[in-house]
């Protein structure tokens, strides 16, 4: 795989990891690296990154709509009430990743999300680690991208201490990249400046 930006047919330079797959390129252009401040959306992405463990993100991305269907659009209040019958139904669904530990971890995470949301807001909880503002990296090639950082280790440790599952520092860093807590678009990618601009305002509240 290329390590520097790729020039696409539309004249735009992009990070190399989506390749030329239109579905993946759209995710790169529209979602990845955009600061996300909605608590429910942050929960969804954290859970899906946990399901990714051992798999590629494009695999999860292609299954995302089915995940949303069977997990009640990742509404924590609904997922927190799932019992054994629902777990078995999920385990029988070929449209998602059928991993019992990850399914059960999703339910545990929903209950923990509700506790944090009531106390301080899940979005505030996560963004407070960065004082509400995204980190702006200046990466030239994918070789400069780290798998984890001291901050992702710190967040991972805190999430684990609260009881969250599948939140190791590498998973947490991938999550941070995706939800714009850190801008890891390569500096020559057209989205780098756009995401940097989106992050200027910081957390809204």
From TrEMBL:
GO MF annotation: an example: DNA-3-methyladenine glycosylase activity
Keywords of this entry: Glycosidase, Hydrolase
Organism name: Labrys neptuniae
Residues of the signal peptide: none
EC number(s) given by UniProt: 3.2.2.20
Designated name of the protein: DNA-3-methyladenine glycosylase I
Alphabetized PANTHER family for the sequence: DNA-3-METHYLADENINE GLYCOSYLASE 1 (PTHR30037), DNA-3-METHYLADENINE GLYCOSYLASE I (PTHR30037:SF4)
Pfam name, any one: Adenine_glyco
């Amino acid at each position: 795989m290329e390590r520097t930006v790729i020039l696409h047919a539309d004249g735009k330079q992009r990070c190399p990891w989506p390749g030329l797959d239109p579905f993946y390129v759209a995710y790169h252009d529209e979602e990845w690296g955009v600061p996300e401040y909605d608590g429910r959306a942050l929960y969804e992405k954290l859970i899906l990154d946990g399901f990714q463990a051992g798999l590629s993100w494009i695999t999860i991305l292609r299954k995302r709509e089915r995940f949303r269907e069977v997990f009640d659009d990742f509404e924590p209040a609904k997922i927190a009430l799932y019992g054994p019958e629902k777990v078995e139904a999920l385990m029988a669904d070929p449209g998602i990743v059928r991993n019992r530990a990850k399914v059960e971890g999703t339910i545990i995470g929903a209950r923990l999300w509700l506790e944090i949301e009531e106390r301080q807001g899940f979005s505030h909880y996560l963004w407070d680690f960065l004082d509400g503002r995204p980190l702006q990296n200046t990466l030239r090639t994918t070789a400069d991208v780290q798998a984890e950082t001291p901050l992702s280790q710190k967040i991972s440790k805190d999430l684990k201490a609260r009881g969250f599952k599948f939140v190791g520092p590498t998973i947490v860093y991938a999550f941070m990249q995706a939800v714009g807590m850190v801008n890891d678009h390569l500096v020559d990618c057209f989205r780098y400046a756009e995401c940097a601009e989106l992050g200027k305002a910081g957390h809204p509240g």
